[in-house]
Structure formats: structure tokens, C-alpha cells
Amino acid sequence: MPLPDSLPWMESVDAKVRRARTHLDSFYVEATKYAEKARPQFIRKTNHDRTAHCLVFYVEDPHPPIELSVIVGDFLHNLRSALDSLICGLVHKTRPTSTCSGRQFPISNNRDQYLKERRGLLRGIPAAAVAVVDSLQPHCRPESSIEFDPLWILKTLNNHDKHRTAHLALCYSKDVELMIPLKNGASWWVQLDRDHYAGEVDTVSLGCPPDLVADDLKVQIKGRTVLMLRSQEPWANRPVHQLLETCLRHVEDRVIPKFTPFFA
After folding, report:
1. Whole-prediction pTM value?
2. Which terminus of the chain has fewer CB atoms gathered within 10 Å of its CB, N or C?
3. 115-151: buried (b, 16+ CB within 10 Å) or exposed (e) per residue?
4. How far apart are CA 147 and CA 156, in angstroms?
5. Which of 123, 117, 83 is nearest to 103 (CA)?
6. Cβ atoms within 10 A of the Cβ of 93, count?
7. CA angle, 162 as apex, 135 and 235 as ends, to 5°?
8. DSSP 3-state percent helix, strand, coil across the chain (nearest 5)
């Protein structure tokens, strides 16, 4: 049964985009749970004459669970499939009895290669719609920003997901502040001067006198746990949730609306 607010032949596109949003919401929930587990553990070290002390800290399980990577893959599959369904919808809108074999939404960073491939991939859709697909290609951007095009990121990550075992490979704690409770009820704050990567063992000196701190020290930590992707691309240093949200918003706000007049 068609979705109530879908235009003719847009049901699959709308359903896949909605499913992608559902997967992204699930990723936020599960990533938050993992972030709590990935908080660093602390061990206090004091020198022999108790004139100086420090904290040694580490993460017990630095590797994001593969289930998170699977959710990312499901998100990418549905969002990429929504674009292909868009092309099939255009074909069916023109010729309802046609098949969509061999058709898809091309995404290319090379103009010459794109022009060779698009004739078959876009066969049967209106010339005006082909012009819209042309205008959305990453190779239309300035050369310095082609690799950062959201459609190119989507294509790259989706291809990675089909040929690799996991996306997520790294997490780190950012903007970390430590609160050290003192015996007199006050607190001593320490801010780390760099990000802490899970899997590393770090040490931070404590500037307060050791005798002011209780032996059963319980450190409170403030900061953000950031998940990153297994990738060598220039955008790989961005948090994964930002990349996924960028891809989704681009498809929702910049791509699909350009084609809705063809389905009205």
C-alpha cells in the first residue's frame, strides 16, 4: 500500500529514506551506550616521598562493537537505494510497464567517465531529469571540494560497507576535564591538553598536594566520546554521526526535492 503522503512511484524512495533515518536514530542510541562504556579508567600514582602524584588512564575496551558498524551499513544501504529507486520511479512514471534493469542513480567524481556511463544508467527518464542528475554530480564542484561532496561520501562508504568487515575503527575522548575531589570537600579541576584516543595509556600530572586527595580517589570526567570511521579519505577525521547526518540531509533537502516536480 502506498505511503499516504507519497507521490506516484515515490513510495519506495520515501520508505527507504525513512528507514535510513530510523537506522541513524538507532545509531545515536547505541553509540551513546558505547560511549558510556568507553569512558577512561583512572589509577593514581604517587612518588615515594608523596611530593607529587599523577593519574594514569586508559579505556578497557577501545574497539567499537561491530554491531554499530552494521547499523551504519544498514543506513548507507537504504539511503543509497533510495537514490536508485528515484531513477526507477522516473522510469515507471514515464512508462509504467517498463523494467528498471541496469538503471541506477550514477555518482561520479570524473566527468568523462560519467558521460560514458550515464546513457545506460539513466535510460528512459526525461531529458530534464537527466539534466538534474548531471547538476548533482560531485565532479561539478570545485576540484578542492569534490571528495567532500555528500553524494561521493555516501557512495564511498556504501562501497566500503559491501567489501569490508567494519566501518568503525576508532574512538577518542575530546575536550576532557577531570574533577578531583579533595578531602576538604572542594574540587581540583584538570583539563587535558589533547584528545585521548582509546587504546592509548596516558598520564596527567596533578598540581594539587597529594595529601589533599583521598586515597580512594574517584575521578569524575567531563568531555565527549567521538567515533570515527575506518577510512583513508580526507573527511575520515570527522565524527561518524556528522558524516551520516550530512549525507541524509543532502539527499532529503538537496536531491529529492529537485525531482518531485517530475512525479506530480
Report:
1. 0.85
2. N
3. eeebeebbebbeeebbebbbebbbbeeeeeebeebbb
4. 10
5. 123
6. 21
7. 55
8. 45, 20, 35
Q: How far apart are CA 182 and CA 179, in angstroms?
A: 9
Joined together, the cell numbers standing for residue 4 give: 499516504
Reply yes or no on whether the pLDDT at 158 is more than 60: yes
Looking at residue 1, what is its pLDDT? 45
In which element (H, E) is residue 187 found? strand 187-191
Burial annotation 68-91 (CB, 10 A radius, 16+ → b, else e): bbbbbbbbbbbbbbbbbbbbbbbb
How distant is the alpha carbon of residue 6 from its chain centre? 28
pLDDT digits (tens, 9 = 90+) for 116-149: 999 999 999 999 999 999 999 999 999 999 999 9
Side-chain half-sphere exposure of 233, counting CA atoms within 13 A: 23
Question: Measuring CA to CA, which residue among 90, 100, 102, 110 is closest to residue 152?
Answer: 110
Q: What is the pLDDT of residue 36?
A: 82
**Burial of 33 by CB count in 10 Å (0-12 exposed, 13-18 middle, 19+ buried)?**
exposed
pLDDT category of residue 231 using cuts at 50, 70 and 90: confident
Instruction: Compute the distance between CA of residue 6 and CA of residue 10 in angstroms, rounded to an integer.
Output: 6
Cell triple for 171:
574512538
> From CA 148, how far away is CA 131, in angstroms rounded?
22
Place of cell 548507507: 76
